[in-house]
Design a protein that fits this description.
255 residues, alpha/beta, TIM Barrel, globular
């Protein structure tokens, strides 16, 4: 059985999320977390989670959505945290790839949401793109605000990975791990113990090989597990089982 720790069933690309869930179940995906990236998508994540016992939600404001948010959005996000299906705050963090002109605002919003993690005793799901060092610095300087969390779609070096691991964070890998040019990702997976790794799809994005270019779905997560097993020279079943246990531990979900 597989646990997809990061999926956007709340995406407009899915006209019928129920069918996507059915497809996932047929392919042994037994748990998923639907990730919010702004207020409306966070509400939608909870709506989907409430409709399925094995689906959970994370709510938060993505760094690329900060420019669009209203003054009241963060307060509304906090209200959503009382829903029992919410298992994390995310995705939150820094993105200097798409947004270079508001770095300070991104950092401030990141810290504000870390404070919510402490207040509500929830793990964090961190988005970080082209901002590895700043993300690490903020997480180091604010370690008292969270107990654990996930570096979503990890894409940095092994050296940085070791620093994130020291903060009791897990590293999540998705379809990009299957790409032929993903040498750095493969090196990190090879060297980091399986007990600190997670698998995800980030669907509908980052579809794994050989379906790259098509719309992604949770049903493809086995391809990520298979690649991880190949890199670590172990059975795919072991990857599925241990990453499933890891996910349950991070999110506080009974296996």
């Amino acid at each position: 059985m597989y646990f997809d720790t990061h999926v956007h069933l709340n995406s407009e690309q899915y006209e019928n999320f129920a069918q996507i869930i059915i497809n996932a179940l047929k392919n042994n995906v037994s748990k998923m977390v639907v990730i919010g990236y702004d207020l409306e998508s966070s509400k939608k994540a909870i709506e989907i989670a409430n409709s399925c016992s094995f689906v959970y939600a994370a709510v938060g404001i993505h760094p690329s959505e900060i420019k669009k948010m209203n003054n009241d959005d963060l307060k509304q996000i906090e209200k959503l945290l009382s829903n029992p299906k919410v298992v994390a705050i995310g995705e939150i963090g820094l993105d200097y790839h798409w947004d270079k002109d508001n770095k300070q605002e991104q950092q401030e919003m990141f810290i504000k949401q870390l404070k919510l993690a402490k207040k509500h005793k929830l793990p964090i799901i961190v988005h970080s793109r082209d901002a590895g060092n700043d993300t690490l610095e903020i997480l180091k300087n604010n370690k008292k605000l969270y107990k654990t969390g996930i570096m979503h779609c990890y894409s940095y070096s092994l050296d940085l990975a070791q620093e994130y691991l020291k903060l009791n964070l897990y590293l999540a890998f998705g379809g990009a791990l299957t790409f032929l040019n993903a040498k750095q990702n493969k090196e990190v997976v090879k060297e980091v113990e399986l007990e600190k790794l997670l698998i995800e799809t980030d669907a509908p994005y980052l579809t794994p090989h050989p379906y790259r270019g098509e719309r992604n779905e949770p049903k493809y997560i086995s391809l990520v597990a298979k690649e991880m097993a190949k890199i670590k020279n172990i059975e795919e079943e072991m990857v599925a089982d241990i990453t499933y246990r890891n996910a349950c531990k991070v999110f506080g979900i009974k296996k």
